[in-house]
Specification:
Protocatechuate 3,4-Dioxygenase, subunit A, 55 strands, eleven-stranded mixed beta sheet, 5 domains, 10 helices, Immunoglobulin-like, elongated, five-stranded antiparallel beta sheet
C-alpha cells in the first residue's frame, strides 16, 4: 500500500502586482511612530471576509488593489486591538489614501483562565477568553496566508522522506532534497470543502494520501463549523497556552484533532500539532499525525518554518493458531515526510536571509592514543547529513529536527578492526547539542569483543624468538576456584598472533602458556577483573617440551600403585599408571606446572613442579593409604621458576639481607590475609582489633620502631609499604589475597633497607615490600 504525505514548496520568485484601483496608506501609533510588519487586509462589507492582504513596511506604508465597489480596511497586530477604516466606495481608476492609527492598548491577558473542557462540544471558539486567543491565532494564520498568496516572501527549504523506528521514532533512513521553486505553498492541501467531505486521509488507486491542514483550512468556515475550540494548558511548557480543537460528533470521515499553541506572554503562534481521528486501523496510531512550526520574520511576515506528517507502514504477519492461519497487521515503521525552511527572501528588497537550523557540535577523540581525531567523517546514521572534523577533532553539523544516531568514520577504525561507535542524539529547534565521539580504550574494546560473555578478559600475543607473530599458536590457561577442581581453557592466535580469552575468573590467578609445534613458552600467571582485562605477551622461542616420568608407590609397603590418574593442569596431558606404578607424560611445557595424582584408595593431591626446557623430570610418588594428600615428591632434576620482572627481588633474596617470604611458604601457611603471612617474621609486632572501613584492623610495626617527637616524647613509627616497587599504604596491601603474591621482603630499620626502597624519613622505621605473581 502506498502512503503519501502531501507537501509542496513555494519558490523564491515573485508574481507581478495586479493592476486596478489602489488603496494606499500608512499605519502609525498615536504619537506618529510607524508600525512595521502589521497585516493590512481588504474586507468585503457584506460578510467581513478578507479579499487581499499586505504587510506594512518600515515606514508603516501599505498598498492594496481592489475591484470597484464598497470595501473596508483592517490593520492587525498580534496582542493588540485591530484598526479599521471607514467604508470606502471605489470607482474605476480611484487611488485612495488612508492614514490609520493603531490602537496602543493590548488585549487583556489576565482573562485567559483555562478551565476543564465541558462535556458538550459546540462549533467555533467558545467564551470570550477563547475568542480573544483565537483572534491572535487568526492574525498569524492570515498573515502567513497572505504572505504566501501575495508572494511577499520566497522560501528555500530542505524536504525529506524518512523511515522511523516505530517505538523510539529514531531515524532509520532518510532522503533529502533542497528545493527553491516548485510551487506556491510549503505543503499542498485540498480545499476545505473537499477535506470536510472526503477526509484528511484519502484512498485512491495510486495509494493512501495523508493531508495536513494549512492556514486556509484552519481559517475556513467549514472547518470552524465542524470543530469545537477550547483553551488548554501545556503540561510540558507552562509558558504556552493552547487552542485545542476536535471534530464534532457524527463526522464519519477521517478528521483531525489537535492544538494550536501560542506564547501566553506575547500571544504569538508557535506551532500546530494534530492527530488523525477515525483511522480505524488495527495498530497503535498515537504517533500518526503531524506538526507545523510557525515563525515570525523580522519583516513581520509569518511563515511555516518546519513541518512533518507521520504515516504508518503496515505489514501483514501470518501466524498459525489451533491449526488455522491468522493474518494480523503490525506497525513495521513510521514514514515521515516533512521539511524546513532554511532561507527566505523578501519581495521588498530581495535580500536572502539564512535561518538557524538544529545543530550538533562536538569532538572526536582517540582514547587509545590520547589525542583528537582529525579529518574524521561525522554523520547521522541513515542520512546524507555529514561533515568532517578539523585538525583539533571538532565538528559542527546541521540537520532537520529529529532523533538520530551520531557516528563517524576514519581509517583508524579500520586499522583497529572495530565498528564505528554511535550515540543517540535529539536535534531540536533553537538547541545546540553537544556530543563527544571517541575511539574506545583498548580495555573497553576487549570487553565489548567478549560480550555477552560475563567472564573476565585475558588478551595478549604470541611471538617467536625474532619477534614475529605466530599464527595458530595454542594458548592454554588453567586456574583453580576456591574449594573446586582446577579448570582449563584454550584459544588460538589470529593472523596477527593475538588471542582473546573471554571466560577467565574474576580476581583469581590464571596460568597461561603458548604451544606451537614442539615449542612452547614459559607459563605465566595473570590476573583479570571486570572492566580490567589481564594482558600477556608470550614468547615461543628456544624452549622445548619436556617429559615427566615417575613411579607411584605405597609409602608404607612400597607396593606399586596401578590405575592411578596422573595429569598436568592447563595442558590437557594425563595418563594412567601401569601395574608396576610407572607413568610417563610427554610434551610437557617447561616452567612451573601443577601435577596431580588421583587414586580411589589414596585420595587426590596436586603439587608444583618445575620442568626444564627439553629435559626429563623424574619423580617418585609415595602415597599413604586413605590420605587426601600425597607425601612430598622426590624431584631428581628441576629448574627454579622465576616471575619475569622480579630479578631484583630474587637477587636480594639470594644475598640474604632481610627476611623473605616466598610463594611456596605463603601456600604452606594457608594465610587468608597479608597480616597472617607476616606473623612469623622476627621482630615484627602485629596487633589486630576491629577492622576499619578499609578492612584493616591490624597495626603492623617493628618492636623497636619508636621515634622522639619535638617535646622529647616517643611515638609509634609506621612501616613504609611498597607494592611491586611503588610506595603505597597498608590498606592497599591488605586488600590483596595472599595467593596472588610471589614474595615479600621485610627490612627492620634503615641499616637493612636497600637503596631501592629508601624513600624519605619513613624508611627508618622499616620497609615491607610485596611483589605480585603478575610482576610489576
Amino acid at each position: 500500500m502506498r502512503t503519501v504525505g502531501t507537501f509542496v514548496l513555494c519558490g523564491l520568485g515573485f508574481a507581478a502586482p495586479l493592476a486596478g484601483q489602489t488603496i494606499r496608506g500608512t499605519l502609525a501609533e498615536p504619537d506618529g511612530v510607524p508600525v512595521q510588519g502589521a497585516l493590512v487586509v481588504l474586507l468585503a462589507p457584506e460578510d467581513d471576509s478578507t479579499r487581499a492582504g499586505v504587510l506594512t513596511d518600515r515606514a508603516g506604508r501599505f498598498l492594496l488593489r481592489a475591484e470597484p465597489g464598497r470595501w473596508r480596511v483592517r490593520a492587525d497586530r498580534i496582542g493588540h486591538r485591530s484598526a479599521y477604516s471607514e467604508p470606502l466606495e471605489l470607482s474605476a481608476g480611484d487611488d485612495v489614501v488612508l492614514e490609520l492609527v493603531a490602537p496602543v492598548e493590548a488585549v487583556p491577558l489576565d482573562a485567559l483562565a483555562v478551565t476543564a473542557a465541558p462535556r458538550s462540544c459546540r462549533a467555533r471558539p467558545e467564551g470570550p477568553a477563547t475568542a480573544r486567543l483565537w483572534d491572535d491565532a487568526r492574525k498569524a494564520l492570515e498573515n502567513a496566508f497572505w504572505a504566501r498568496e501575495q508572494e511577499l516572501v520566497g522560501f528555500e527549504a530542505v524536504l525529506y522522506q524518512r523511515r522511523l523506528d516505530p517505538e523510539s521514532l529514531r531515524v532509520r533512513t532518510e532522503e533529502t532534497e533542497r528545493r527553491a521553486a516548485i510551487g506556491r505553498r510549503p505543503f499542498s492541501t485540498p480545499l476545505p470543502e473537499e477535506l470536510a467531505a472526503r477526509g484528511f486521509v484519502q484512498q485512491t488507486d495510486s495509494g493512501t494520501y495523508y493531508f495536513a491542514p494549512d492556514e486556509q483550512v484552519l481559517l475556513s468556515d467549514v472547518f470552524l463549523a465542524g470543530h469545537c475550540i477550547q483553551l488548554r494548558r501545556s503540561a510540558a511548557d507552562p509558558g504556552l497556552v493552547g487552542l485545542a480543537f476536535r471534530p464534532l460528533r457524527g463526522h464519519d470521515v477521517v478528521d483531525i484533532e489537535g492544538v494550536l499553541w501560542l506564547d501566553e506572554a506575547t500571544r504569538e503562534l508557535r506551532f500546530l500539532e494534530y492527530a488523525y481521528t477515525n483511522l480505524r486501523l488495527d495498530i497503535p496510531t498515537e504517533d500518526v499525525g503531524g506538526r507545523v512550526q510557525f515563525q515570525r520574520l523580522p519583516t513581520g511576515a509569518w511563515i511555516p518554518r518546519r513541518w512533518w506528517i507521520r504515516m504508518p507502514v503496515i505489514e501483514i504477519v501470518q501466524t498459525t493458531r489451533l491449526g488455522f492461519d491468522i493474518e494480523r497487521p503490525t506497525l513495521a515503521a513510521i514514514r515521515e515526510r516533512g521539511g524546513e525552511v532554511v532561507a527566505v527572501r523578501t519581495r521588498r528588497d530581495g535580500r536572502i536571509e539564512q535561518l538557524d537550523r538544529p545543530r550538533v557540535q562536538g569532538i572526536v577523540y582517540d582514547s587509545i592514543r590520547g589525542r583528537p581525531v582529525a579529518d574524521a567523517e561525522v554523520r547521522l546514521e541513515g542520512t546524507d547529513h555529514a561533515t568532517r572534523t578539523d585538525d583539533g577533532g571538532h565538528f559542527l553539523l546541521a540537520a532537520p529536527e529529529g532523533d538520530y544516531r551520531l557516528t563517524f568514520r576514519h581509517p583508524r577504525l579500520d586499522t583497529l578492526g572495530i565498528s564505528a561507535p554511535t550515540r543517540p542524539i535529539g536535534l531540536r529547534a533553537g538547541v545546540l547539542v553537544q556530543a563527544r565521539l571517541a575511539i574506545p580504550t583498548e580495555e573497553t574494546l576487549l570487553v565489548q569483543a567478549c560480550a555477552p560473555v560475563e567472564g573476565s578478559v585475558i588478551a595478549g600475543s604470541v611471538r617467536d624468538g625474532e619477534d614475529r607473530p605466530i599464527i595458530g599458536a595454542v594458548v592454554r590457561l588453567a586456574w583453580r576456584p576456591e574449594d573446586q577442581p582446577i579448570r582449563e581453557g584454550e584459544v588460538r592466535t589470529d593472523a596477527d598472533g593475538r588471542f582473546l580469552f573471554c571466560e577467565a575468573p574474576h580476581g583469581l590467578p590464571v596460568y597461561a602458556r603458548a604451544v606451537h609445534g614442539d615449542r612452547t613458552s614459559e607459563t605465566f600467571p595473570v590476573l583479570a577483573a571486570p572492566g580490567r582485562p589481564g594482558r600477556l605477551a608470550l614468547r615461543v622461542d628456544t624452549l622445548r617440551l619436556g617429559r615427566i616420568i615417575g613411579r607411584a608407590t605405597d609409602a608404607h609397603t612400597a607396593q606399586p600403585l596401578g590405575g592411578a590418574v596422573v595429569r598436568v593442569h592447563g595442558t590437557g596431558l594425563q595418563t594412567l599408571t601401569e601395574d608396576d606404578g610407572r607413568f610417563a607424560l610427554r610434551d610437557v611445557p617447561p616452567g612451573r606446572q601443577v601435577l596431580e595424582l588421583e587414586h580411589v584408595a589414596y585420595g587426590v593431591r596436586d603439587d608444583t613442579l618445575r620442568v626444564a626446557s627439553g629435559a626429563t623430570l623424574s619423580v617418585d610418588v609415595r602415597a599413604t593409604p586413605g590420605a587426601i594428600e600425597l607425601d612430598p615428591l622426590t624431584v631428581t632434576a628441576e629448574r627454579q621458576y622465576r616471575v619475569p620482572g622480579l630479578a631484583g627481588f630474587y637477587d636480594r633474596m639470594e644475598r640474604g639481607n632481610g627476611v623473605f617470604v616466598t610463594a611456596e611458604q605463603i601456600e604452606l601457611r594457608q594465610a587468608g590475609r597479608v597480616s597472617e603471612v607476616l606473623r612469623a617474621v622476627p621482630g615484627l609486632s602485629i596487633s589486630c582489633g576491629t577492622p576499619d572501613a578499609l578492612g584493616t584492623g591490624c597495626l603492623i610495626q617493628f618492636d623497636r620502631a619508636r621515634v622522639m617527637n619535638a617535646r622529647g616524647g616517643a611515638r609509634d613509627c609506621p612501616v613504609q609499604w611498597f607494592l611491586d616497587g611503588t610506595a603505597t599504604n597498608q590498606a592497599v596491601v591488605e586488600s590483596i589475597r595472599p595467593q596472588f603474591i610471589e614474595g615479600v621482603e621485610v627490612y627492620n630499620g634503615l641499616s637493612e633497607v636497600p637503596p631501592r626502597f629508601r624513600r624519605g624519613p619513613d624508611t627508618r622505621c622499616g620497609v615491607i615490600a610485596v611483589w605480585l605473581k603478575t610482576g610489576p
